[in-house]
Amino acid sequence: MGVFGFENILLLVGFLSILAGCYCLIRTFHILKIAIGIEVAMKAVTLFLALAGYVNGKIDLTQTFIITSIVIEVVVTVVSAGIAINLYHKYGSMDIRNLRKLKG
Amino acid sequence: MEVIVYISLGLMLVFAVMAVMLHSITKSAIALAAASVALGIVLYELGSVWAALFEISVCSGLVTVVMISAVSLSHERKTELQKVYNDKKRMSFLPVILIVGGLVLAGVAIWSKFTLPGAGETAAGSSFREILWNQRQADIWGQMIVIVAGSAAVSIMFKERD
Fold first, then answer.
1. CB pairs A-B closer than 8 Å
2. Facing residue for B131 by CB, picked from A3, A64, A84
């Protein structure tokens, strides 16, 4: 197992997915696209957790963490979809810059 | 096993990049679902069977349904979307950034001779079920609280206003 071993390739793909997700978060103003960016980054987190379990031999423990992260991921997506729909009904677009116009 | 993992990883990265770069939200959501399926295959091959099941059913299924529902409840036209967000131009640098990032990371790994420890022995004793229900009960309570908080937030957001 060298530098380009099985685990390192998994790590590399995970880091690239996080890079893609963060780039999406930085560059877009569409709230659903932002939710997609968060999802892409969370996929990498799931991959890292599974890799940690595989390396340590404690795959059953890391599976519980993965399930917790999946639940949180889904709730974040559902709430952001709700915000997106409300934003659309109020301003006619899903641009997050409209959130600045809200009171409070 | 490794060949399947490599193919799935490649597909996962390609679909993730497509989800970020595609202009249409519906197509992005479908690409995200495909990335979830690819990740589910990787998880299955790594031995996380339950996590793979959740990834494919929840992330690939439920999240896509939520995204497409949100799109269907709004009616932003494609041309207007392109004009306002200019996503095609904004996202066009992503492949270059990923290639440069990948090369930098590979260079750092070669320079530092980075290696993870090899796959360890599978810990004997507690099964997934025992760990989830006996050792990680706090996680389950946390999950329930997050789900209740999320559903309360959504129900408040969709409350009928006079």
1. 240
2. A64
Domains of chain A with CATH codes: 6-97 (1.10.287.3510)
Tell me how close the Cα of B129 comes to any Cα of chain A, in angstroms. 8
A30 and B25 within 8 Å at the Cβ level: the answer is yes
B110: DSSP letter:
H
What pTM, to 2 d.p., does this model score? 0.87
Whether B120 contacts chain A with CB within 8 A:
yes
The CA distance from A22 to A43, in Å, is: 12
Secondary structure element (H or E) that encloses residue A61, with its range: helix A59-91
**Tokens representing B97?**
């950034």
Predicted confidence band of residue B85 (pLDDT cuts 50, 70, 90): low
State the Cα angle at A17 between B120 and A52, rounded to 5°.
Answer: 15
Q: Is the ipTM of this complex over 0.95?
A: no
Sign of the torsion angle spanned by Cα atoms B86, B87, B91, B92: negative
